[in-house]
């Protein structure tokens, strides 16, 4: 048996859970899949890899430019402002942080969800 208070709060809790799991529309930038990235890269898109130099050396997308997350804010002026910038890391976490920084610097960014993990799992090429 459930209390009246519990029954009243359940719709609110359910709604909050849905919002917490939904993409963050207020982030100011989209998150794309590796499939979308592959199409963009094949078309010459600018790709920024925000992993460490050591991670980048272990394997990266051939056209990627390496700019570690801890340097993104200080070097944001090096990132193009005249075209979309795809941002990738290992899993999508650091790239989302970098995308937030770059979005605030008025860059047109797209975070790559799943990062290099998903890229490799999809069987796309990696350069070492």
Tell me the span between the first and last alpha carbons.
61 Å
CATH superfamily: Rhodanese-like domain
Write the element-wise H/E pattern from the N-terminal end onward. HEHEHEHEHEH
What is the top-level CATH class?
Alpha Beta
Got a strand count? Answer: 5
- Apparent shape: globular
Tell me what the structure shows.
This is Sulfurtransferase. Residues 1-25 form the signal peptide. Keywords: Signal. The protein is α/β, with parallel strands linked by helices and 128 residues long. It has one domain (25-121): Oxidized Rhodanese, domain 1. Helix content is 44%, strand content 12%. The protein is built from 6 helices and 5 strands. It has helices at residues 4-21, 34-42, 53-58, 69-72, 93-104, 115-121; strands at 31-32, 46-49, 65-66, 85-88, 109-112. Strands 1-5-4-2-3 form a 5-stranded parallel beta sheet. The termini are far apart. The model is unreliable at 12-24 (pLDDT under 50).
């Amino acid at each position: 048996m459930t209390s009246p208070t519990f029954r009243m709060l359940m719709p609110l809790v359910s709604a909050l859970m849905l919002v917490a799991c939904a993409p963050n529309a207020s982030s100011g930038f989209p998150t794309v899949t590796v499939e979308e990235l592959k199409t963009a890269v094949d078309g010459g898109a600018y790709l920024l890899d925000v992993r460490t130099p050591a991670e980048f050396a272990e394997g990266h997308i051939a056209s990627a430019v390496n700019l570690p997350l801890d340097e993104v804010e200080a070097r944001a002026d090096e990132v193009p402002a005249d075209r979309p910038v795809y941002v990738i890391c290992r899993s999508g976490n650091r790239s989302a942080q970098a995308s937030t920084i770059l979005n605030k610097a008025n860059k047109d960014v797209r975070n790559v969800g799943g990062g290099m993990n998903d890229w490799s799992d999809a069987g796309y090429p990696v350069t070492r």
